[in-house]
Amino acid sequence: MAAISSFSASFSVRSDKPSFSTSPSIFSSSHHFLPKFLHFPRIFVSPLPLQISCNASSTVSVQSTSPTAKTELKDFLHINDFDKDTILRILDRAIDVKALIKSGDRSFQPFKGKTMAMIFAKPSMRTRVSFETGFTLLGGHAIYLGPDDIQMGKREETRDVARVLCRYNDLLMARVFAHQDILDLAKYATVPVINGLTDYNHPCQIMADALTMIEHIGRLEGTKVVYVGDGNNIVHSWLLLASVVPFHFVCACPKGFEPDEKAVEKARQAGISKIEITNDPKEAVRGADVVYSDVWASMGQKEEAAYRRQVFKGFQVDKTLMDIAGSKAFFMHCLPAERGVEVTDEVIEAPNSIVFQQAENRLHAQNAIMLHVLGK
């Protein structure tokens, strides 16, 4: 059988029926043992490479499938990588695709035949389910790679992971700890990379938040968003959005827990939005359209939880704080929430709480982001 697997053959098509140049030698030793209906056609063995010619003028060429470098920005790593028009266009697309999905129409399948690798160094229910469900609803197939599947940067270098996965997939999404990991992934990948969260920022969450505000307030521009709590990656993402879209952003946090100074300065230098950093939550929330909170100790900071609870006293979002904000203020939280810690149960269950609408909109905002980076 080794001889059979290594031979090359040539034939030409001259009419509607193919005609073969043949020789019986290749199967001569066993040909007479085969039933008549299993007799092989007589094939002419040639040392020349396979060539196919037809009466019609045509050529067959094999093109390299090895990845090439990205020639333009196709990643979604930071909100301020895009201008205002692009961000609002993505949000408009999210509204349209959400309506289509809600209608039950499943004919829109732009990701059919495409795959996405989802890298999770830091696990999450909402990020995994929203990305995987969204990509599936639009016709694609998402592959979950958990913390023990790759151990990116430990078991295998990030640059190697990037260059391997982009040969299998059309899109990469990663939820990691160090921000440098997402930057390295995007640097070496030749398919679009989406930032599912880093310790520095969380752009997909803020896009979902912006979509939720548009649905409930009617606009994003010109609103007042007051974040109460730790100056973390959520705050950085709000600051990056404020450097592109005009609104009033206030971060009320304890001393020593302010957001990154460079992120604050970048937002202020953009001259687009009014940016305030304060240590007085009661004064901060007055006239707010949105009061926003997050856990005081994120994943990787749990050993500081007891200490932070002491430091953050007075920064809990309770009914008293929401009353100061006013009757028009909505409460938002990126979840998961520690009820009774950074927010009371009464607030998160109140009629003006839109935290679960935020959670749903992760799916719809991310669908629009994926459509954008894949050029759909």
Automatic annotation (TrEMBL):
Reaction it catalyzes: carbamoyl phosphate + L-ornithine = L-citrulline + phosphate + H(+)
Pfam family, one: OTCace_N
Enzyme Commission (EC) number: 2.1.3.3
Predominant subcellular localization, coarse grouping: plastid
Listed GO MF terms: amino acid binding; ornithine carbamoyltransferase activity
Gene Ontology process terms (BP): citrulline biosynthetic process; L-arginine biosynthetic process via ornithine
Keyword Ion transport: no
UniProt keyword Disulfide bond present: no
Domain Aspartate/ornithine carbamoyltransferase Asp/Orn-binding positions: 221-372
Positions of the Aspartate/ornithine carbamoyltransferase carbamoyl-P binding domain: 74-215
Stored InterPro entries: Asp/Orn_carbamoyltranf_P-bd (IPR006132), Asp/Orn_carbamoylTrfase (IPR006130), Asp/Orn_carbamoylTrfase_sf (IPR036901), Asp_carbamoyltransf_Asp/Orn-bd (IPR006131), Orn/put_carbamltrans (IPR002292), OTCase_ArgI (IPR024904)
Keywords, in A-Z order: Amino-acid biosynthesis, Arginine biosynthesis, Chloroplast, Plastid, Transferase, Transit peptide
One GO cellular component, as annotated: chloroplast
Family, per entry: Belongs to the aspartate/ornithine carbamoyltransferase superfamily. OTCase family.
The protein, known as: ornithine carbamoyltransferase
Lineage: Eukaryota, Viridiplantae, Streptophyta, Embryophyta, Tracheophyta
